User: Which sequence fits this backbone?
């Protein structure tokens, strides 16, 4: 069983690398001109403040996504992974990712929860490492709550507190 635990450790190192890579070199960073939907996410406990922009076309597909703001490595990496993931998706599929990520990381169900079985988290599974650090879960899910708010047009700003 030593071999197995070693490989799990290697996997965790890879995930850590992926998070650090996205934190150092965020994808799709900046303001999105012509965005149709946007929302700001604030996590006062950590000081993360991110704004996420989406261009959603007439048939409900996310044609582009960007984010700006500042935050800790985990919040920035999560927003970077989010934009990487949802570009090209229908909004319904993006909301499925929101539900899957939030429930996976926080271990509880949120309002508007959808069935999770059909969602393959792919590289987003890298975020799961924060489960060991409950105070960082809000950092990792911040961008996802902003996505949910932007797509549903519920409010301009979401706060974790
Ligand atoms: Zn944070």
Assistant:
């Amino acid at each position: 069983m030593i071999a197995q635990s070693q490989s799990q450790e290697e996997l965790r190192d890879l995930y850590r690398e992926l998070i650090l890579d996205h934190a150092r070199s965020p994808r799709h960073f900046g303001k999105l001109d012509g965005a149709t939907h946007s929302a700001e996410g604030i996590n006062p406990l950590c000081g993360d403040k991110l704004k996420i922009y989406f261009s959603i076309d007439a048939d409900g597909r996310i044609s582009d996504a960007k984010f700006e703001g500042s935050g800790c490595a985990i919040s920035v990496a999560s927003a970077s992974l989010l934009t990487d993931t949802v570009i090209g998706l229908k909004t319904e599929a993006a909301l499925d990712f929101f539900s899957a990520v939030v429930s996976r990381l926080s271990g509880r169900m949120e309002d508007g929860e959808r069935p999770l079985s059909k969602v393959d988290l792919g590289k987003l599974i890298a975020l799961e490492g924060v489960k060991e650090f409950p105070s960082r879960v809000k950092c990792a899910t911040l961008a996802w709550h902003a996505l949910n708010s932007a797509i549903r047009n519920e409010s301009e700003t979401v706060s974790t507190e």
Remarks:
- Residues 1 and 38 are 48 Å apart (CA to CA).
- The chain has a mean pLDDT of 88.
- Residues 2-159 form a domain with the Sufe protein. Chain: A fold (CATH 3.90.1010.10).
- The pocket of zinc ion is lined by residues 43, 46, 48, 71-72, 74-75, 139 (CB under 6 Å).
